[in-house]
Design goal:
584 residues; Rossmann fold; NAD; 16 strands; 10% strand; globular; 7-stranded mixed β-sheet; 43% helix; alpha/beta
Amino acid sequence: MVAQTKKYLAVASMAKANQVYNVRLRGDVILTNPRFNKGTAFTPEERRDFGLTGRLPYRVATLDEQCQRAYDQLQVRDSAIRKNSFLQSLKGQNWVLYYEVLRRHLRELIPVIYTPTEADAIANYSHLFRRSEGLYLTFPNMDTMEEDFLEQIKGRDVDLIVCSDAEAILGIGDQGVGGIGISSAKAVIYTLIAGIDPGKTLPVTLDVGTNNEGLLEDPLYVGWPHHRVRGKDYDQFVDKFVQLVRKHLPHSLLHFEDFGVTNARRLLNIYQDQHTVFNDDIQGTGAVTLATVMAAIGVTKSKLCDQRYIVYGAGSAGLGITTQLRDAMVTMDEIEVEEANRRFYLIDRFGLIKQSLGDKIREDVLEFARPDSEWEDAETDQDGYVRLLAVIKKVKPTILIGCSTHAGGFTEEAVREMAKNCERPIILPLSNPSRLVEVDPKDANEWTGGKALLATGSPFPPAKNPNGKDYVIAECNNALIYPGLGFGAVISKARKLTDTMIIAGTRRLASLSPALKDPDDALLPDFADAPAVNFEVAVAVAEQAIEEGSAGVDWKKEEVRGKVREKQWWPVYGKYVYDPEGEA
């Protein structure tokens, strides 16, 4: 299906290249507008009509030639952070060229514009600052928030808002106002992989201060130099922002990104029934992991409810994964929530989460706490905590999921113990970046005699099976699903992003697993196919929204595929006609 979808989308791209746009910008104004600028690709007729003949060198370049020139310029940058800076500059000049360069070198450049390089750019945001990007909403300016918000969206049709308070950025923690970088990067990926028009996206940073002392002491820090606002004041600030989105952009998707563990799940719970909201750290991570597990159990010919799950790391990601798997089990296997909860064993820094831990247990994980009566005879460490190996010995898990950032946490002894009691152990060390992975997949493959079904959160080279065949390690990357989930909700004008819509997208991703045709192949499609994969996810989500009555459109399900293709934005140059009443 992925190959067929890629051909289908290629036709859509060609159609967009023939689209005619009436534009009223002329001269230097159009050359400095990244949405309409073509640079040397303006045709002789366009140059004449838009007053550009003397502003550009004589020769007309093709987009192919521009991409080659830009890529050559990129290659001479000798570090990832300098490449990131170059691409940021290119985005500010010419959207089509920027996104087309990224599209042609997707696997190579995603780590440059997103994790891990974007983390360095965000950490140094105040020192690298050149120009603003998006909307900065700052706590001391709360009284003018609506005025500032309306100024930013004036005359715009905004489909997507990505916002962050920057408390938990990409594994590097609190980055204050630099959080605008993660909001901007996420918006870019929605465009690059799902096809959301970049002119209809709005990155936002909610600057409520920072507890990063390095930033507070930095004289060049460009954010609000104040410790983080907490409690009632924080809630009022966030709520005012959300209510503005609901009031002025009622059909938009509001994407929460990199909020801290005390707020991420809480805010999602508060607003998920009020507006179409999405938290990638919770729902995106949960959805792509669910798709991976569904592909794996497709290989083992079993069901979600047949598994015994150990989740190593119970933060936002771990709890999001657990909740998503649990909810899918309830929906697909038709079992009660309490029964589904009993399939899970969560481990955090205090070992197995069991009821006697008391106030060491966060409220949002209480429902997964194990009864102490189950563990009276379990091995404990010197502090009395039940650690991973002891849990594996007692539970005999079929699935082991890591989202702890504890490098090497899945020891050889633990992996071998799991493999003793499981024909095809499903092992998913998902922590990012790769240096923090719980186990190197080639080691897990070796320790299980090639029996393990593996996926990781970062890219890894293939492992060698005992038969000499390469085993491709699937990259359990959120970008394989969240852009499609979001675009499906946007395109269908869904009133909220329901659990069943997420599950529909997840099932579609799982159905594209190469392992379903060859059990020794990857559990997920190649990341290079992410645009085609997310197209399928978006179609599935929109179809489900229509079927369940969540959609705000009156389409029939059989119309959805064509509607999604029609609405996608593509990095191609259309034809411009000068019109004083046209677009700007």
